[in-house]
Structures are given as structure tokens and as C-alpha cells.
## 1
Amino acid sequence: MAMNSASPAKVSFKAQMLQAREDAIIQTASRLLAEKGFEAMTVDEVAASVGIAKASLYKHFSSKEDLAAAAMVRVMQRAQAYLRDLPPGAPMAQLRTVARWTMELKLRGEMPSLPSQNSTLRAKLIADTAYMDGLIDVSDCLGAWIEAAQAQGHINADLPAIAVLYTLYARACDPVLEFLKMGGQHDEEQIIRMVMASCFEGLAAR
Amino acid sequence: MAMNSASPAKVSFKAQMLQAREDAIIQTASRLLAEKGFEAMTVDEVAASVGIAKASLYKHFSSKEDLAAAAMVRVMQRAQAYLRDLPPGAPMAQLRTVARWTMELKLRGEMPSLPSQNSTLRAKLIADTAYMDGLIDVSDCLGAWIEAAQAQGHINADLPAIAVLYTLYARACDPVLEFLKMGGQHDEEQIIRMVMASCFEGLAAR
DNA sequence: GTCTATAGGAGGATAGAC
DNA sequence: GTCTATCCTCCTATAGAC
């Protein structure tokens, strides 16, 4: 294991290079997915933006859908990791923290939002176990916090937990964020504060 | 004007037929736009659904974008008419009524939501005076109600009116509505009540 | 203005050399 | 695995007869 370690090291290095390229592809796809959506994004564009030939991209991902799905899986894994590493806290505080984090991602253009519309990508993702496992994992975590926060009287207990969950998910693709950003009247911190307030405290005065 | 009225009547009838066909095209486009979005909708599909040849459709609208823009203009005009005919009432009540109406349209699949993403359609609409005039008209009306409701202490006065306006507009493309509908656990009235509650009262308990 | 038929082009995917 | 070059399908848009 000592003398013939050169070869394994070389292979590992090569594999790392491949992995790095694949990461670059996914990251670029993720960005374009966030910018223009699945239908408007072209594979040519992704390849050009990464700086490789389209055929090379197709060695990594067998279809445009696979590529997009990989990007979505990555976001989901990122969310899982974020939740796992989140310092303990009160359920309501955790939910607020996660909502804010989600909006920050969206504002930075790092949130490839799944088209709400009918899309072939949708079916692909539902059939993707990596994505679905991640989604269920995240939903379980958030769902537990939601129910705890409701039990503690911090979240409106009249709302079904599933409605609260979806409302939080929807913050990841909230057009209000980009509209306010386009307006240019407020910085990102102000925008997030406003949307956080309307989400948790509501539009009606308290 | 009495004797030669046959000819004008004939022309008017012909024009009515044309108008009716154009209405059918726009309505179909509107529905497909709501279902699949601009990019995924095809002109073949619209023509087939209306029951005419694609070339005939292109006699009415010179491009796919024009067609989609016409559908968006129609929705905007519908909103203008709705606001114009709304019985008078307290500003806060008006806002709630309009929000509910918007969600009902969305749930019925009659709300062709403008893609939030970068789209050629976006530029087209911004350049379309009919659309922009309608948008400004609607925004002025809602904006006045928002400020009045804030002055009366019914809407959170810490939120800029523009943020409240955008939040209301966003109800027209809220994915929470369709997610809850897909879940099948609640009827449309319940769904609307839940989203209305989370929008106005917020997720946090009161 | 409506049709059938087709041009024209974009974009997803592949062949085959290296 | 990466490239260049190419295929092929789908979709927007138009030509031309009626």
C-alpha cells in the first residue's frame, strides 16, 4: 500500500478534476436555472458558460433534464446540510432563520426554483430518489418545528402544518423579492426584512 | 340610414365573428399560458385547441409574443373592469376582496402568470402601452387603498406601500395555491381561506 | 381570412476522431 | 473525456392556393 500508492493518487487526482468540472457544470446550470427557468435555459448556453463543448457536457449528464435535476438535487442537499448544521434553538426561531436563509439564496440568484407549471422536469424530480429523499428529510425537519411552534402558541394553530410548510417553501421563489430588488429603492437586508415581516406578521396591522 | 342598413349590418356581423374567434384564441392562449407558461406553450397547440389552422392564428397575431401579450392585456383589462365595478367599501375590505378574487382566478386556471424570470415576453409587455396603462391604473387604485388602510391602522404601516402592493400581486401566482390543490386534502374555499389568512394575518400567532 | 404545405432556424442529442 | 461537426426533431413563421 506504500510503494504502489502513486497510481491510486493519480487516479484520485483525475477523479477530483472530473468532480470539479462536474461541480462547475452544475453550478452554472443552477445559476441559469434561477435566471431564466428550465425551458428558457439552453444546454449550449451552459456549456459555453462553463467553457466546455456541449458534447463534453453530455458525457456527464445524459440529458438536459438530468442536468437540471442534478442542480435541484444539489440545492436540496445544501438545504439538508444547512438544517443539519443549524445550532439548536426554539422552533419558531429556527423557522425564521431558515426562511431568511432561503430568501438570501434567492436574492443572490442561487435558488433554481422549480417551475410551478407543468413541466417534464417535475416528473423527473418526483422519480428521483435523491431529490425526494432530501425533500422528505427537509419537510420532516421543518414540519416538526412547525408543529412544535404551533404547540407553543408561536405559529397560528388554525393553519394546517402543511399550509405553513408550503408557505415557507414558497419564499424560495417569491417574486416580491426580485420586484423589490429591481425597484432599487431598498437594499437586500431591507427587502428581506420586509418580506419576513409580511410572511410571519402578515399585512394586517397588529 | 334605414334603406342601406343591410350592408353595415352584414359587415358588423362579419366583424363580430372575427372578434369572437379572436376572443377564443386569446382565451385558449390564456389558459395554456396559465397551465404551462410562455416557453412551454406552442402556437400549434393553441391553434389546434381553438380548432383553426396555425396560419389563421398568425393572421390575428403576428407572433407568439404578441399573442401572449394580448392574453396578458386581457387579464389586466379584466382586473380594471373588476375594480371599476366593485361596490364601494372600506379600503381594507376592498383589498381583501381583490386578493380573494385574484386567487379564485388562479385556482380556476384563468390567471396566465407572467414568468418572473427573464423573458422576451417581459420586454414586450413593458413596451405595450395597453398593458402598462392598465397596470398603472390598477396599481393606482390598489395603492390608494393600501395607503388609506395604513392611515386607518388596518395595514402594517411599517411596510412600504409598494411592498404591500407587490405582495398582493404575488397572490396571483402563488404556488401554495396549486400545491394545496394538488394535495387534495382541502376544497378551494378552504385553500383560499388559508392563503388569505397567511397573507393578511401572517404565519405567527396573534 | 382560412386552409395546406413548407421554409427557416434553434436547440437537444450523437458520431467519430483524438 | 474532450473536441468538431453533424443529425434530427420541434416550433415559429410564411407562401400561395382558394
## 2
Amino acid sequence: MEMKVEGGSKRKAHQSEDETGIRKGPWTVEEDTILVNYIAIHGEGRWNSVARFAGLKRTGKSCRLRWLNYLRPDVRRGNITLQEQIVILDLHSRWGNRWSKIAQHLPGRTDNEIKNYWRTRVMKQAKQLKCDVNSKQFRDTLRYVWMPRLLERIRAATSEYDPSCQPVPVTLNHSSVTPLDIQFHQAPSIPWQAQHVSHGSQNGSDVCPRVASEQGNNGLGGGCGGGGGDWAETLWSDDNIWFLQQQLFEDV
DNA sequence: AAATCCGCCAACCGCAAGACT
DNA sequence: TAGTCTTGCGGTTGGCGGATT
């Protein structure tokens, strides 16, 4: 059995009804239409009533989720922008996995979408770096390398960007960041300072001065997992900065 | 061309908190 | 006040489809 779902695309239907007649699985176009029409007339809320009176064989929870994550007219679709990535990384560093709270600062984005972004993109990077995503090391990597790099790319995309100036690593004066000073619809106002740092590839070629992998580690000195010494100092060696950027930002 | 892998994302589940009776 | 219902949140699952072998 096949049925049309989501804008006419066809997908094998795994929809089923349990013993109480409740349907589960992907929503059909017909169900979406019913839900949208019902909410247009009666408004949001009272989700169990929506399910009951609209004639949908769905739970109230399922109706709510479908509306909030997909059918709502102000849901933004498409890739997470660089600006949005900055906001997500920054707010997550403050609040952790408070997806709904983070989503409140990204109009049109849902908590589910942000959660999926984090799990598929950010956690992937942590895995590649053999870091625990909640470790201080990885959080520092996000803060001191990934986020500045995103800012660089945002700057590069604006007319203010001067291509003759290539501030590769960027330092961060994070102590002066006040909560919620970032809005997704405007350029991030994080008071980070660009800083020129001598770099192994000043001529623009991507030749690593010392290939980290040759050392049999992940380029983070003693490794993310621990080890003694000043981790931050190790991180900021030119070689590691180069390596981290290659590792982290190829597909950001 | 077929099989397998893997990223993405929609949807489900369990739990907790608040609202209602 | 206690019990029930509703809503919201975060974690997890599973299918689709593109990429790779």
C-alpha cells in the first residue's frame, strides 16, 4: 500500500492503526488538510479536541506536533543559515539542550529542527574529533574556533568584508557577551575581535605545516579526552588551529 | 546494476509540570 | 487536596533517499 504524503511525494506507507483506532506514522495530505482547515476555523490549542472533533484518528499530541513542526504557516524551511548556526551554538553554550528555549530566538525554526541540527552536525564533529560533545574541550573548540569561523564567513558574505584582510583565528572576549544580544535577523553583535596570527599558509595554499594525523592523534595535543597540561595553550598552536579548521569547517 | 552505508528529519515515546475538576 | 487531563519538552527511533562500494 502506498499513499501520498507531504506535498504529493510518494512514500511507502507505514501508517497503522492500533487497537484503539489511533493512526500512527507519516501524515497524509488529506490529514494535513483536515488539520489546517480545523485550526483555521477553531484556532490552536485543545489538541485532544482537535483530534476528536476534526475527525482525525490521531492523538492530540500527534496533531500538535504536526502543526507546530510542519503545518504552521510561519515555519521556516530550508538549511540553517550561518547566522542561525551562530545563534544555536551560542545559546546552546549557555543553556544546553534547552531546544525549545533556543528555538524561541530563531523565528520560524522549531525545537525539533534545532535538535536535529545539533545531533547531525555538531555531534558529528565531536565524534570526528573524538570528543565528548559535553566536554569542556569540545565546548571550547566551538567557542574559540567554530563560532569565530562562522563569523568570518558571515563577514565574508557582507560588503564590509575586506578580502585583503584575512584574520584566520579570531579571539573572543566572551565575558562581555550579555544574554540574548544576538538576533537571528541581524548580524551577530558578539564582541569578538579579529586578530592576525602568524599562520603556516599565509600565501593562501592549504599546506599544513605539520600534518596532525602523522602524529597519531587528532591534532589536539594530548587529545580531547583529557591529558594534562594547558589544553587551551595546546589548542592555540598554529598547527592545531590549522588542523581544527580543516576538520571542522569544510562542510559548515 | 545491486547492495550497503549513512545523513537527514519526521514522528513517536516517556516524563514532568501546570490546569482543571 | 487529590486525581485526572492537557500541554510541552527532550530523547529516541525508524524510514527515505542520496552517496558510496
